[in-house]
Write a structure and sequence with these properties.
alpha+beta; 34% strand; 3 helices; single chain
Length: 194
């Protein structure tokens, strides 16, 4: 940069304007680059704190005095699954939907199998819709809390235990819980090698 500054002192007024414009453009590009890297962790923190984008927190601990069940209300919970583009596994819910009472413990399973010719590691990422209702979906046990490792041809039934909070707004009558399954085999292999 010292060379550029020295040249700008000897330059004509038009060249000085061009040099300033170039330096500003370089600064903007560098700022955008840094902002791009900082945005992902900031967004994850924001989603974790607010429940935005349907992100759900880690395991819910049921209070010692329990949760009051609302016997007069039913909520439909729908289960959806999909695989990331590079994930060849079969992945589906045992049931597509359940009618549950808020405050009641519920359980279901999800099926996964590995048709690939090698052992793979997967991670399921959950989301809830409507997004503002994510904070009312309490998972006490979930396969999404851990990585799943399956050998070639291996299959597994993965448990999910959850409670819908009784304080779920009355306007919400259906919750959709969907999981996206990601292949993280390469990431876990490189972490183990370090």
């Amino acid at each position: 940069f010292n060379g550029i500054i020295e040249l700008s002192r000897m330059a004509t007024p038009n060249q000085k304007v061009q040099t300033r414009t170039t330096l500003k453009c370089i600064g903007v590009v560098l700022g955008m680059f840094v902002f791009g890297f900082a945005l992902v962790p900031l967004y994850d923190i924001y989603c974790q704190v607010t429940g935005a984008n349907g992100k759900t927190a880690s395991a819910y601990v049921v209070p010692e005095d329990g949760i009051a069940v609302d016997p007069d209300r039913w909520v439909t919970v729908q289960f959806l699954t999909n695989n990331n583009a590079s994930m060849p596994w079969s992945f589906r819910p045992e049931v597509r939907s359940m009618k549950v009472r808020p405050g009641e413990m519920n359980q279901t399973t999800f099926y996964a199998s590995n048709p690939a010719g090698y052992t793979m590691t997967a991670q399921a990422i959950p989301s809830v819709a409507p997004f503002h209702a994510a904070e009312y979906m309490h998972k006490t046990e979930c396969f999404c809390f851990e990585q799943q490792v399956l050998a070639t041809g291996e299959a597994i039934d993965m448990p999910l235990r959850f409670i819908i909070d009784p304080y779920l707004p009355e306007s919400v009558q259906t919750l959709t819980l969907w999981y996206t399954l990601f292949d993280i085999t390469d990431m876990t292999a490189s972490a183990a090698a370090e």
